[in-house]
Write a sequence for this structure.
């Protein structure tokens, strides 16, 4: 079986990929907006993107008063995230049409309802407690598609899935990352 998952190519500064001559923009290649421009508007969203926690840090650059600093460190010590900045990196993307097909492949159940939250609310969060709910449903859907997940190496950056089996396979790997790493979580959003 051929792999149908491909990494997204970087986009030139002009916002469109170069045409056949390497200079003029190609109208056949869709515009890829920077991550900061993404919104969850259901009318304009064209993709569903899952982001993975890449790193966390406390912003020490700003001057924090001593009395507030002690509260910040106390909340960190007891496990709360006050003052912590989460840096999410895009990990898995697909079109909304493929995502709707994924929901159909999962069938009725709690796993489908969890992922359908992206269409209903614009975004969802996936933590360790969601993995036992989602993983069996994804494996069953992969089996129904006749696909066997095989990891060929660690993906570098964003991976764009072009069909249901490739999305399910890559999502399964994302669930494994969430399950294996202590502080990692993922967030799925519909984006413009």
């Amino acid at each position: 079986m051929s792999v149908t998952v491909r990494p997204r190519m970087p986009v030139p500064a002009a916002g469109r990929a170069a045409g056949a001559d390497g200079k003029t923009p190609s109208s056949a290649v869709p515009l890829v907006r920077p991550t900061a421009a993404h919104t969850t508007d259901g009318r304009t969203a064209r993709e569903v993107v899952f982001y993975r926690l890449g790193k966390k840090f406390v912003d020490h650059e700003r001057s924090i008063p001593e009395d507030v600093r002690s509260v910040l460190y106390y909340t960190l010590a007891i496990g709360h995230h006050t003052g912590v900045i989460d840096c999410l990196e895009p990990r898995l993307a697909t079109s909304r049409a493929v995502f709707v097909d994924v929901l159909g492949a999962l069938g009725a159940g709690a796993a489908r309802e969890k992922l359908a939250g992206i269409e209903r609310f614009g975004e969802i969060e996936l933590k360790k407690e969601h993995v036992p709910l989602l993983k069996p449903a994804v494996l069953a859907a992969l089996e129904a598609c006749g696909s066997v997940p095989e990891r060929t190496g660690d993906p570098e950056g964003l991976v764009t899935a072009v069909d249901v089996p490739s999305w399910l396979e890559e999502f399964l790997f994302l669930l494994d990352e969430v399950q294996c790493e202590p502080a990692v979580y993922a967030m799925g959003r519909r984006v413009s």
Observations:
- The longest helix spans residues 164-180.
- The radius of gyration is 19 Å.
